[in-house]
Design goal:
The protein contains 14 helices and two strands. With 311 residues, the chain is an all-alpha fold. 29% of the residues are buried.
């Protein structure tokens, strides 16, 4: 039942009933992959398990599409897959591109997330047309989480912001409001507010947002080079390190030097003529604090059932 993904090609037939897994088997396959495979064998590096599981989950989605299974089944299958790609985006962000292609993972995450949101919208339209309430407890808990994930993953994106603004009031929870505030702040270049708001998100969403830190830090240093432009005043390095959520002051010093800013034991000497624009973005580094938070959560529980968030 754990078959690999196979592309469509001439001579291949994907419609043989004996090769297609019904919805209940697809869900069992997802549960097996995200519990037995991902979480049980600690001796195997995560990146190896990621390659295997990602391919098999892609095959699950393929069977799901070929059979055109019910939207209710699609929801319970897609939600853990989205969490898996979100977690892997952070977990593998420091890997070499030969081992982990973040672009491919992000593409799968975006596709699955958009498909999930489209199904949510379908149930909304069905409720309106039939004038009935179609909702269960799992949807009530899960939908605001994934709506917020879409905001965080597409930080500052107009389409994501417009979607959140137009959500029915039933889904405009406190969590969605926090995600909207963070996205608005990012769009307005209020970057310190973004950093301060991140810790109000569930851990997995925090880690997903942390992947945006290289862009956020680069833009912050550029703006501060203008705002604090002075030959006589330096900005305390410890304060700046905490504001921009660096693991250590040494990481901040490295970034400042990379962008041409002068820095010493007293702090950063911002000069607008020193900042070098157009340089490639610094590679993202995982947060030690975030790693500790994720280690406190059972991985299978996180991927299969999500996080509990109290408004």
């Amino acid at each position: 039942m754990v078959k690999c993904f196979s592309r469509s090609a001439a001579g291949k037939c994907f419609l043989k009933p004996e090769n297609l897994r019904p919805p209940n088997v697809l869900l069992r396959t997802v549960n097996y992959l995200l519990d037995e495979v991902i979480n049980k064998n600690d001796k195997v590096p995560y990146i190896i398990k990621y390659d295997f599981v990602m391919d098999r989950l892609r095959a699950v989605r393929q069977d799901m599409v070929i059979q055109n299974i019910s939207r209710a089944h699609q929801i319970v299958i897609l939600q853990p897959i989205v969490r898996f790609h979100a977690y892997s985006a952070y977990k593998c962000c420091e890997e070499n591109i030969n081992n982990f292609d973040s672009h491919i993972n992000d593409t799968h995450l975006q596709e699955c997330l958009k498909r999930l949101l489209c199904i949510y919208d379908y149930f909304d339209s069905l409720e309106k047309s039939a004038n009935i309430q179609i909702c269960n407890e799992s949807l009530k808990d899960a939908r605001p989480y994934f709506e917020t994930m879409y905001l965080i993953f597409n930080l500052g994106n107009n389409e994501a912001i417009n979607r959140a603004i137009r959500l029915p009031m039933d889904w405009r929870t406190n969590l969605v409001s926090i995600g909207l505030d963070i996205s608005f702040s990012y769009k307005k270049n209020n970057l310190v507010r973004v950093c301060r708001k991140l810790n109000r998100l569930p851990v997995l969403l925090q880690s997903l947002a942390f992947l945006k830190m290289p862009q956020l830090r680069s833009l912050s240093l550029k703006m501060m080079s203008v705002a604090y432009n002075s030959k006589n005043i330096c900005f305390p390095i410890g304060v700046l390190s905490k504001l921009l959520l660096y693991n250590s002051t040494s990481e901040l010093i490295s970034d400042c030097k990379y962008y041409g800013l002068k820095v010493d034991e007293n702090g950063v000497w911002f000069m607008k003529t020193d900042f070098i624009e157009g340089k490639p973005m610094v590679k993202v580094k995982r947060s030690k604090e975030m790693d500790e938070k994720l280690q406190q959560i059972d991985l299978s529980t996180l991927l299969l059932y999500g996080e509990k968030y109290i408004d």
